[in-house]
């Protein structure tokens, strides 16, 4: 039976991310390079890089309350040795593996926001990540917080579908973070891909052509398919000399985006498996792409990258140290790459996870799902220092740290200070939360 346009759109899924995830039209790199040539991002325009640590990063083993006597009592064998950590301020220190970030702290380019979380915490990976990516703790939102920024930007520009180059996820799938009600970002896998060409390409272009008779759902599918060709071929020249490292470690996004709690945590565990973290691993590959795209002037305002494997229920010590080394190597190399170009002063990076871990380790030498944790903000525009209140290690909520900083305060500060958008456009009434002084 011939494939009708209607049947094709119904079978295609709702967003371009679904097509990319299924391999039904991989994204290549030439279009971004072309966009950087034709309409480069204006100098000084703020750029936000979002680093998601999937699995629930142990905040107490990342930003260590080294001067609190209760820390060593609670943590036992998992406690870091005082002589190995990198002192910050207010009795806090960075984990031994974060020597590069310690250098950024000394340069005044690292901010640590303590006790970050959301009201009425949930220990579920899936639910917690949905809350962080949607910025909607009390309601089930169908859009991500950056997706709503894309919607607002499209409305200001008088565009119904927005610009798919404004927000890019470097990896095989598009996280909910970048999905709006009307506009979406694009997923750019870290490999050499090309959009379909020849007869297949022409057929797809015809099937994805807008039609006034389309229902809203079909119109959105058609638009996302057309976006594939807008983005397709975009980063080829940008990535031409990118090192091929840490292949096969991208499963954390697919698990977190499509599976339940076990799938999210299990898939996330695969992302830290390559190498010992010394070269930045897969996260380093993703940030290499981001650095090259920024240096080339690609007109992207938000980049999303990720590292998984942080669900450390057992034998945490070695696993977590390796993951932190990978994070540290990737972020510090990214900082050096930006510093070599003209746009370092415009780039701010946020590092977060869906929750922290319990204060007291479990019997398997690991830690179980917790609540509050630190958020790291780094870059040349950042005012370095410690922000927010470090949660007490003794006044716990059923064994968990109490949230002292609402995560939407971080988002509101970034929306206004980096993306130049009034926070209430994205966060609604939650935009009344206090701003933080890290910018």
UniProtKB/TrEMBL annotation:
PROSITE patterns named among the record's database cross-references: TAT
Pfam family, one: DUF1501
Keyword Signal: yes
Keyword terms, alphabetized: Signal
Name assigned to this protein: Uncharacterized conserved protein, DUF1501 family
Signal peptide start and end residues: 1-26
InterPro entries xref list: DUF1501, TAT_signal
Superkingdom of this protein's organism: Bacteria
Keyword Ribonucleoprotein: no
